[in-house]
Amino acid sequence: MLSPYELFVGLRYTRAKRKNHFISFISITSMLGIGLGVAALIVVLSVMNGFQKELRATILGVVSHIQIAGMGGRLADWPVVDEQARSNPEVIASAPYVMAEGLLSHGRPVQGTIVRGIIPELEATVAEIGEHMRQGSLETLVPGKYRIALGIDLARSLRASVGDRIVLIAPQGQVTPAGILPRLRQFTVSGVFELKNYQYDSGLALVHLEDAKKLFHFGDAVSGIRLKVEDLFAAPRIARELANTLPTNVYVADWTRSHANFFRAVQIEKRAMFIILLLIVAVAAFNIVSTLVMAVTDKRADIAILRTLGAAPSDIMKIFIIQGALIGVIGTLTGLLLGVAIATNIDVIVPAIENTLGFKFLAKDVYYIDDLPSELLAADVMVIGVTAFVLTLLATIYPSFRAARTNPAEALRYE
Please, which residues have CB within 8 angstroms of residue 100's CB and are 6 or more apart in sequence? Predict the structure, then answer.
């Protein structure tokens, strides 16, 4: 336990003016180093959390929680499979789909794309594409009208807008006396969506399910069924349960399997960045070692006087632990305040820096998102603060132990 005089002496040593100004300089440097390291940790982890959240939101805006697909890309008895899947109480919605590749042509521009056939009213129950429409709506996709909704970057590449007519070329050819010819169908652009995910904004086109069936010769079959569950984090377990009850000719995958690499990579990067940036805090914290070692040398006479007055070695040790801990506390609190301030205002700070420097940090054609997100978690702030404080306490052990072993007679010999 700390006694009042140990606390008083330790605090006085911290704020007292020293003859050796270099000790004060190292103390301030240690505080700043700890503060900057803690702030950097909070900001980086908040950005990684925000990136993971945005990535999950944009992917799940297009990809369903669970997807049931037929072997070979076709599911013939899909109404039966759909009924069996919906019998699970945790499945709250389902929607059939047709997926195929094609070429879109609008005059001279030609772009390859993934064509997804959907039923708009059912698709809205399993995905959020309808909430990201920039022009038009998914309800305009009416069977037999041959209308199409394009991702915003795909529409720009084709130089197409709502009302324009474009040609969809199916890869499966038609056998004619003149040979095999590709199947062509003219579609009218009825909507443009923006998911803020370059993969989908530049390579996804939506048509009505019946139109897709006719164009790609699916007949009564579909490519598969998309499901939505109550708890998206329970999707892996529900997918395993469905795989045990559905026919063996279907393939069941949840969102964590279809995009596992993305989320695993983000999690690994988050852990790696935490370890790397923690080294900055560790280096700054162990600067306290040199600060206290020089302080002990500077205060040898004071230590000797305290020992002759009856102070125990443990009391001397506590005095210098308090001094080092106070440096760590000030640096940690400064870093926490600075990091929280930056993390909560990063949506304002980053655009200001981009405008000043004249370039964008996140290019949409390279990254999955085009802005720098941030999600500050109280658990991260607590872990960072506690870790930084523990490192500073560890750094005080050796200098404090050295101070406690000071021999009063030797220290006062030349005083």
Answer: 114, 115, 117, 170, 171, 212, 216, 223
What are the two backbone dihedrals, phi and then psi, of residue 87, each rounded to the nearest 5 degrees?
Answer: -70, -20
Let me know if 211 is exposed, middle or buried by CB neighbors in 10 A (0-12, 13-18, 19+).
buried
Rounded to whole angstroms, the Cα distance separating 239 from 336 reads 41
Partnered with residue 229 across adjacent β-strands are: 91
The phi and psi torsions of 183 (rounded to 5 degrees) equal -85, 135
Task: Identify whether the C-beta of residue 368 lies closer than 8 Å to the C-beta of residue 58.
Answer: yes
> Which among 225, 222, 231 is positioned nearest to 253, based on CA atoms?
225
Query: Hey, how many other C-beta atoms are within 10 angstroms of the C-beta on 163?
Result: 10
d(CA 187, CA 173): 18
For 391-409, how does the pLDDT look when each residue is reduced to its tens digit (9 = 90+)? Answer: 888 888 877 777 777 666 5
3-state secondary structure of 227: strand
Question: 215 with 98: CB under 8 angstroms?
Answer: no
Against a cut of 0.85, is the pTM above it?
no
Structure tokens at 61: 């805006």
Contact 195, 55 (CB under 8 A): no
Q: How confident is the model over 240-252, as pLDDT tens digits?
A: 999 888 887 888 9
Question: In whole angstroms, what is the distance from residue 403 CA to residue 303 CA?
Answer: 7
Q: How far apart are CA 153 and CA 105, in angstroms?
A: 14
Cα separation, 393 vs 286, whole angstroms: 10
Which distant-in-sequence residues (6+ apart) come within 8 Å of 252 by Cβ?
66, 67, 68, 239, 240, 242, 243, 246
Hunting for tokens 């045990």 — which residue is that? 244
Which residue, 246, 210, 211, is CA-closest to 78? 246
